[in-house]
């Protein structure tokens, strides 16, 4: 019998029948995702087929494709649930934390806690996600909703801290902090340390650095440099969509 791995489902535990997903379709969709993640961990992403996932989940191949257009879109379901879980878990970890460094660290560690059970197939998954044309890419249009959810979380991280954010960078900084998270995730993918502890240490050590950069951006002596950086981000940040930021605010 296959070992069970943790689910990222946002639904409460199955022991409370009234708290299960509202419909049979939602339960079927969740079962397909959970089955796929277990099989990816055991067989590897590339060696697991949609047909095998459907058979193990107890649904027809056609039914599996009804919920997920491809294996890649099935992973999108996992990514969506992971970001939803991140949005649920992080506020609890932010309670009582007022410094920006503490809040950034809490958000990063929350993501690593959620991703931890899936490290076994992370390298194979990342190889596919690294393709810019793949829907698995965190920068793809398919990932837009999940990406925006995580970026919104970092906006909450900023707004709840004591650090004052420059008004003309308030829209960009959450996305830059999300990119910081992507750097930590990339390290986590290839982290061979026990329990990926080095990735957690990376999160702890880079969070104060990121917070310091945000704080320094308010200094007048650094404003010309900050302005140049802001323009570069607005013009070249690859997650930007047309009209997402709008024109840069005029100088007062």
Automatic annotation (TrEMBL):
Keywords: DNA-binding
HTH tetR-type domain sequence ranges: 26-86
GO molecular function terms noted in the UniProt entry: DNA-binding transcription factor activity; transcription cis-regulatory region binding
Membrane-spanning ranges: none
Ranges in coiled-coil conformation: none
Biased composition (Low complexity): 1-22
Binding region for DNA: 49-68
The keyword DNA-binding is annotated on this UniProt entry: yes
Keyword Transport: no
Entry-linked PROSITE patterns: HTH_TETR_1, HTH_TETR_2
Region (Disordered): 1-28
Top-level division of the source organism's lineage: Bacteria
Protein name as catalogued: TetR/AcrR family transcriptional regulator
Origin species: Glycomyces terrestris
Source species taxonomy: Bacteria, Bacillati, Actinomycetota, Actinomycetes, Glycomycetales
């Amino acid at each position: 019998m296959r070992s069970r791995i943790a689910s990222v489902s946002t639904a409460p535990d199955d022991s409370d029948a009234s708290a299960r997903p509202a419909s049979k379709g939602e339960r079927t969709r969740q079962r397909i995702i959970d089955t796929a993640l277990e099989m990816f961990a055991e067989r590897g992403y590339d060696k697991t087929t949609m047909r095998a996932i459907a058979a193990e989940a107890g649904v027809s191949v056609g039914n599996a494709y009804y919920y997920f257009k491809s294996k890649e879109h099935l992973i999108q379901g996992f990514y969506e649930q992971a970001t939803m879980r991140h949005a649920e878990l992080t506020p609890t970890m932010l309670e009582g934390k007022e410094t920006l460094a503490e809040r950034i660290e809490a958000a990063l560690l929350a993501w690593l806690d959620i991703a931890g059970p899936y490290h076994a197939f992370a390298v194979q998954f990342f190889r596919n996600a690294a393709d810019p044309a793949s829907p698995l890419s965190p920068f793809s249009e398919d990932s837009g909703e999940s990406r925006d959810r995580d970026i919104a979380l970092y906006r909450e991280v900023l707004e709840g801290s004591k650090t004052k954010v420059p008004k003309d960078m308030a829209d960009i900084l959450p996305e830059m902090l999300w990119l910081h998270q992507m750097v930590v995730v990339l390290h986590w993918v290839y982290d061979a340390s026990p329990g990926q502890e080095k990735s957690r240490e990376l999160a702890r050590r880079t969070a104060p650095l990121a917070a310091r950069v945000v704080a320094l951006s308010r200094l007048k002596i650094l404003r010309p440099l900050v302005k140049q950086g802001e323009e570069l981000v607005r013009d070249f940040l690859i997650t930007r969509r047309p009209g997402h930021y709008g024109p840069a605010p005029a100088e007062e």
